[in-house]
Design goal:
Shape: globular
Helix content: 25-40%
Structural class: alpha/beta
Strand content: 5-15%
Number of helices: 25
Strand order of the largest sheet: 1-2-3-4-5-8
Number of strands: 15
Length: 653
C-alpha cells in the first residue's frame, strides 16, 4: 500500500528557504540529507526542548493527539473537535494536500486559537519591532529576517485551519520565552526530561507538575493576527504554497536561483557516501562542470557582496577581482579585503613583523583557556532568566618560558539542575591567579561569557561577589551592553584575531575555526609533526585525560589525520559534523556545538550511570584538545619566526 504524502509546515519552511530542496527531500534514498531531522534533537541542541511542554502546562487540561499516523491523527482530531470547548496538543488539520500538526489548538465555540510555540526568547519591549525600519519609512511591511520564518510558519497554519474550518474564526498566536521574567522556582528545567521510547524519544514530565508549582510564567503569548493577515493578503502566498505542494507530491524539481544561503544547504554529500549531492547538482547545472571544493563565491570568507557577483554570473573565486574587495594596505595587520584576496589567490601568507611584535608582548607563563557554554530556555535556578548564558566547562593549558607544556587544570559542572556560573568563575580564578602570565582565548566568546557572568554576579547575593567581579574585570574588556567600561590589566589575548591579522593557509579554505586551523597548522609545521608524532602526550607532557597519546597519526596513504577526528564520538546517533553545521555557520558557536549537545543530554536526558560517565569523560577529552590546539598554534607562531621556517618559501609581507 502506497503511503499518502502531505505538504506539512516543516516542508513549507523548507520551501521558503529554497524550493529545490523539496525535490531532494522527497527522495531520501537517493539524496544525502545532512540535517537533524529528529525534532527532539533539534530542540535539545538549542536547550529549548522543554518549552513546548512548559507551554502545555500553561494551557492545562488539554488532550494530546499522540499518534504519528497522519490519517489516525486527523480522525482523532475531528472527533475531539466535536466538543464545544477543548484544548488539543498536536491537533492534526488537513485541507487538500496541506497538513499541519498544531502545537496547541484551543476551540471555544466558533473560535479556534492557534498557538505555535518557539524555543526563542523576546523582550516585551521588542514585540512592536518585527519589521524592517527602512521599509516602514516607505510604508512597506517587510518582516525582519530573524522573525520572518516564525510568522510564515503560523501564517501557513492559519491558512490551513481557515480552509479546513471556514465557519470558524481562526486567531493565530506565537509563544516565546520572555526575557523580562525570572524563574521563581528552582529545578524547573528538571521537570522535563527526555526519556528513551520505542521508535522515538519522548518527553517525560515529572509527576505532579502543574500550573500551581511551576512558578511565575516565563513564556509570553503574542497575538499575531494583524501580522498574519498581511502575509495572507499577499497575492502569491497561497499560490506559492500550492505550487510547492504539487512539486513535492509529484517529485518535480523547482529550479531555484543560486544564493549565498546555498552554503548552508543540507543536501550535500562527499564522494563515496553512496547518495547524491543536491548542492553539487545545483551548482554543476550553472557551472557546466563539477565545482571545486572551497572555490565557489559562497566560500569566500566574510564576503557580503556575494549576491551581486552571483547575479552577474560570477560563481567562482577566480572570477573575483581586487576591485570587488576593499583591500586596505599599510594598516594594522591584514584587512578583511586583503585576507579575502589571499583566499582568492589561494596562497599562504605570514606577516612575520606583526607576529614578532605580538609574541614579544607576551608574558610567561602563557595560559590557554577554552570555555564550553550553553543557554537554556528554562532556567536552572530561581532568579535566573530564559536563555541566560551558562558556563559549564573549561580547560586550561600552560606553556612555560622553557617551552614545557602542561594541561594544568579543567572544570566540568555535570550535576543536574544546578546553576554553575559562580562556581565556574571561582575555579577559573584559582587556575589563573598564581602569576601574571598572559592569558589566551580563541574568539571573543570567553570575554562575552565572563562579562555576562559579571552582570549575573552584580545582582546576586554571593558572599565573594565583589572579589569575583574584580577578577573578571582584570582579565576582560567591557562589552557593548555593560553598565560600566573597563579593560583589565591582564586582558585575555585573542588568538583568533592574531590568525586573522597575520596568517593565512589555503588548507583552511577561508575558515578561521580552530577545528580548521589546527589541521592546516599541523600539515605545515615540521616542528609540530616531529614533536607530536611521538607518544609523549600524557607522559612527557602532563595531561589529565590522556596517557602516552600520539596526536599526529597518518593514514595508509601517509596523510596526516585530523586530531579532532581521532576522538571517539560523544554520541552515536548524531554525526558531529552535521551537528556543528546545523547549529551555526559562525565559527565560535559551531566549534562548541558537540559539547553543547552533550551537556544538554547530561542535563535533560534519562541515562544510566555508565552512559553519564562516558559522556562526562568524552567532554573532558574534547575540551582538553581545544586548549591543546591553542598551544600548538602558539608553538607554530613561534616556529614561523625562526630562520629555518622563513626559508621554506612561505610568502610574507
Amino acid at each position: 500500500m502506497t503511503k499518502v504524502r502531505y505538504f506539512t509546515k516543516s516542508l513549507h519552511k523548507k520551501a521558503l528557504e529554497c524550493p529545490t530542496k523539496l525535490f531532494y527531500h522527497a527522495q531520501p534514498d537517493i539524496y544525502e540529507n545532512r540535517s537533524l531531522d529528529d525534532p527532539f534533537l533539534r530542540a535539545l541542541a538549542y536547550g529549548g526542548f522543554q518549552v513546548g511542554e512548559l507551554a502545555r502546562i500553561y494551557f492545562p487540561d488539554g488532550v494530546e493527539v499522540a499518534t504519528l499516523n497522519p490519517d489516525e491523527a486527523l480522525a482523532e482530531t475531528e472527533r475531539l473537535l466535536q466538543k464545544d470547548t477543548i484544548t488539543l496538543y498536536e491537533a492534526a488539520v488537513r485541507t487538500g494536500s496541506f497538513l499541519i500538526r498544531a502545537d496547541i489548538l484551543v476551540k471555544q465555540g466558533s473560535t479556534i486559537r492557534l498557538y505555535e510555540v518557539k524555543a526563542k526568547s523576546i523582550h516585551p519591549d521588542d514585540t512592536d519591532d518585527f519589521y524592517d525600519k527602512r521599509a516602514l519609512k516607505k510604508q512597506v511591511y517587510k518582516l525582519k529576517s530573524k522573525w520572518d520564518p516564525y510568522f510564515q510558519d503560523i501564517a501557513f497554519q492559519t491558512m490551513v485551519c481557515r480552509q479546513a474550518f471556514p465557519h470558524f474564526k481562526v486567531v493565530p498566536h506565537l509563544v516565546f520565552a520572555d526575557k523580562s521574567k525570572v524563574a521563581t522556582v528552582s529545578g524547573l528545567n528538571q521537570k522535563f526530561l527526555i526519556a528513551k521510547g520505542k521508535g522515538r524519544n519522548k518527553i517525560r514530565v515529572a509527576d505532579g507538575t502543574c500550573l500551581s508549582n511551576v512558578g511565575q510564567k516565563i513564556l509570553m503569548t503574542i497575538s499575531v493576527e494583524e501580522h498574519v493577515e498581511r502575509l495572507l493578503a499577499e497575492p502569491d502566498f497561497q499560490t506559492k504554497a500550492l505550487a510547492w505542494a504539487s512539486a513535492y507530491l509529484s517529485t518535480t524539481k523547482i529550479d531555484s536561483e543560486l544564493s549565498k544561503t546555498c552554503s548552508r544547504c543540507e543536501y550535500r554529500s562527499e564522494p563515496g557516501s553512496g547518495r547524491k549531492s543536491g548542492f553539487h547538482e545545483c551548482w554543476k547545472a550553472r557551472l557546466k562542470k563539477d565545482p571545486e571544493p572551497g572555490r565557489l563565491i559562497i566560500d569566500l570568507w566574510n564576503y557580503r557582496d556575494a549576491p551581486r557577483l552571483i547575479s552577474e554570473g560570477r560563481l567562482l573565486l577566480q572570477e573575483v577581482t581586487q576591485e570587488d574587495l576593499k583591500i586596505d594596505g599599510g594598516g594594522d595587520g591584514l584587512s578583511t579585503g586583503a585576507r579575502q584576496w589571499l583566499q582568492v589567490e589561494n596562497r599562504p601568507f605570514v606577516d612575520h613583523e606583526y607576529l614578532r611584535l605580538a609574541l614579544e608582548s607576551w608574558q610567561y607563563p602563557l595560559h590557554c583557556i577554552d570555555f564550553e557554554t550553553t543557554a537554556v530556555a528554562i532556567p536552572f535556578h530561581e532568579g535566573r532568566r530564559p536563555y541566560e548564558q551558562i558556563a559549564f566547562q573549561f580547560s586550561h593549558h600552560i606553556i612555560s618560558e622553557d617551552g614545557q607544556v602542561t594541561h594544568a587544570g579543567e572544570y566540568l559542572h555535570s550535576r543536574k539542575g544546578e546553576f554553575p556560573n559562580f562556581a565556574f568563575v571561582r575555579a577559573l580564578k584559582k587556575e589563573l591567579e598564581g602569576d601574571q602570565g598572559s592569558i589566551f582565548r580563541y574568539s571573543n566568546h570567553e570575554n562575552t561569557i565572563l562579562c555576562a557572568i559579571l552582570e549575573q554576579l552584580r545582582g546576586s547575593q554571593e558572599p565573594d561577589r565583589e572579589e569575583l567581579m574584580q577578577f573578571i574585570r582584570s582579565i576582560t574588556r567591557s562589552g557593548g551592553n555593560s553598565v560600566e567600561t573597563w579593560e583589565g590589566p591582564r586582558c585575555m589575548i585573542d588568538l583568533l584575531e592574531l590568525v586573522k591579522k597575520a596568517w593565512y593557509n589555503p588548507l583552511t579554505k577561508g575558515s578561521n575555526s580552530i577545528k580548521k586551523v589546527l589541521p592546516a597548522v599541523l600539515a605545515d609545521s615540521k616542528v609540530l609533526q616531529e614533536k607530536y608524532s611521538q607518544p609523549i602526550y600524557g607522559a612527557a607532557i602532563a595531561s589529565r585525560n590522556y596517557t602516552n597519546h600520539t596526536w599526529l597519526q597518518r593514514d595508509e596513504a601517509g596523510r596526516l589525520l585530523d586530531p579532532y577526528k581521532q576522538l571517539p564520538p560523544l554520541f552515536n546517533d548524531v554525526d558531529p559534523e552535521i551537528l556543528e553545521s546545523f547549529l551555526s555557520d559562525d565559527d565560535e558557536v559551531a566549534d562548541g556545538g558537540a559539547a553543547m549537545m552533550a551537556f544538554a543530554r547530561m542535563q535533560f536526558s534519562e541515562m544510566n550511570d555508565l552512559e553519564f560517565e562516558a559522556l562526562r569523560q568524552g567532554l573532558l577529552r574534547y575540551c582538553e584538545l581545544d586548549t591543546l590546539a591553542m598551544v600548538m598554534l602558539i608553538e607554530h607562531f613561534q616556529e614561523l619566526l625562526t630562520p629555518a621556517y622563513m626559508s621554506w618559501g612561505i610568502i610574507s609581507r
